[in-house]
Design a protein that fits this description.
Blueprint (H helix, E strand, L loop, with lengths): L3 H10 L16 E4 L2 E5 L12 H14 L7 H5 L2 H14 L3 E5 L2 H12 L5 E5 L4 H10 L2 E5 L4 H8 L7 E6 L11 H11 L2 E5 L14 H6 L6 E6 L9 E5 L1 H10 L1 H4 L6 H15 L2 H21 L10 E7 L1 H13 L2 E2 L1 E3 L9 E6 L6 H19 L4
Parallel strand pairs: 2-11, 4-5, 4-6, 6-7, 7-8
Antiparallel strand pairs: 1-2, 3-9, 8-9, 10-13, 12-13
Helix pairs in contact: 2-12, 4-12, 5-6, 7-8, 13-15, 14-15
Bound molecules: pyridoxal-5'-phosphate (PLP).
Length: 390
């Protein structure tokens, strides 16, 4: 038996120990933790919908109409009118024949990959893919092959020797820890040539990018064939919870039959689906929200550049500041916290060794003055903690 206390202590010493904080109120750009108010740059609630009065009203209405629990799996009696209506509206929004709801994005990825690939097959993944895609490939029993980040030469080199068995290429649409976008058109043409599936995880693009917030997948692959599969989550820009997969009729029916994370689990609360229908409407109409968000991204990047704060090539709400050392990233995050600003330090194994960073996320609800305050405090904390390095 492993000594848990020793390994926890060792993790603490390596500055990799993780803890939670308890929010006293709702998710927002200003949050309350331990009786103190913080300006937050941590959430994935990019459009500020998570606690929006319209969503709250829709959620209550959903609970009045459908109750709280779904009471069963989708294939038994858990699939309600709220789920069905949302699936149809999501399919319509992304212009694919069908959509299927999953309880979470993590489960959606596990479900799709295991339904389409198994022993004897190959799953090709970008090195920086989200953990759920990596775990999905492992669970499927297929051989997991990773190619260099967004590097099509690396992908093609790994694709060409594959002769037998099914093949699936999986990539984040917008990379969750780097904020850059995957070259989806090139990925789709590689997939087409290789006769393989392409699964795109658009968790961070859906609601934010593309026409009417239809996402990075839609923006790039609206006309792609049935081999291109979209997975997107509803707990980020949509402000609610859950995820869906969109694709052909045959794909969705295959998932209904074989995706174990769909079949063997309780359907999510119908009221969540009901509220998500309102979120979808707000995303469709959310041009002002996306304009605000974009203005904050530009303001942050211009300000950081002037201050010499090292940015990454991202034009999405995910704006990482690379620090390198996990301890230094943690100290920076703590220094900012003392000044009333919350920014998450992201450390290995979430990101590769030596690339610890501050992951700053912007929201449509951040005011210009709040972005300026972040920049000023980042500047102070950087010079206090990383003076030697600069
Ligand atoms: C958040 C996230 C997921 C998981 O979605 P959940 O609904 O939170 O389980 C999957 N992929 C990516 C890229 C994500 O950022």
């Amino acid at each position: 038996m492993q000594d848990l206390v020793t390994s926890l202590n060792e993790r603490r010493q390596r500055k990799l120990y993780r803890t939670r904080q308890t929010l006293e109120g709702s998710q927002d750009v200003v949050i309350h933790v331990d009786g103190r108010e913080y300006l937050s740059f941590c959430s994935n609630d990019y459009l500020g919908l998570a606690a929006h009065p319209r969503l709250i009203t829709a959620f209550k209405e959903g609970a009045d109409r459908f109750g709280v629990g779904s009471g069963a799996a989708h294939l038994i009696t858990g699939h309600s009118y709220a789920h069905q209506a949302l699936e149809e509206e999501l399919a319509d929004f992304v212009e694919r024949p069908r959509a299927l709801l999953f309880s979470t994005g993590y489960m959606a990825n596990l479900g799709v990959v295991s339904a389409l690939a198994g022993r004897g097959d190959v799953v090709l993944e970008d090195r920086l893919n989200h953990a759920s895609l990596i775990d999905a490939a492992r669970l499927s029993g297929a051989q997991l092959v990773r190619y260099r980040h967004s590097d099509m030469n690396s992908l093609r080199r790994k694709l060409s020797p594959i002769e037998t068995g099914a093949c699936l290429i999986a990539s984040d649409g917008v990379f969750s820890m780097d904020g850059d976008r995957a070259p989806l058109r090139e990925l789709a043409s590689a997939a087409e040539q290789g006769g393989s599936w392409l699964l795109v995880d658009d968790a961070h693009g859906f609601g934010v990018l593309g026409p009417d917030g239809r996402g990075w997948f839609f923006d790039q692959l609206a006309h792609a064939g049935d081999e291109a599969i979209l997975m997107a989550t509803l707990g980020k820009a949509f402000g609610t919870f859950g995820a869906f997969v969109a694709g052909s009729e045959a794909l969705i029916e295959t998932l209904v039959q074989h995706a174990r994370t769909f079949v063997y689990t309780t359907a999510p609360p119908p009221a969540v689906a009901w509220a998500t229908r309102t979120a979808l409407q707000m995303v469709r109409e959310g041009h002002d929200l996306r304009d605000n968000l974009h203005a904050s991204i530009v303001r942050f990047r211009q300000g950081a550049e002037q201050l010499g704060i090292p940015l990454m090539p991202s034009d999405t709400p995910i704006q990482p500041v690379i620090v390198g050392d996990a301890g230094a990233a943690l100290r920076l995050s703590e220094a900012l916290r003392e000044r009333g600003i919350l920014v998450t330090a992201i450390r290995p194994p979430t990101v590769p060794e030596g690339t610890a960073r501050l992951r700053i996320t912007l929201s449509a609800r951040h005011a210009p003055q709040q972005v300026d305050r972040l920049l000023a405090e980042l500047n102070v904390s950087f010079s206090e903690i990383l003076d030697v390095a600069r």
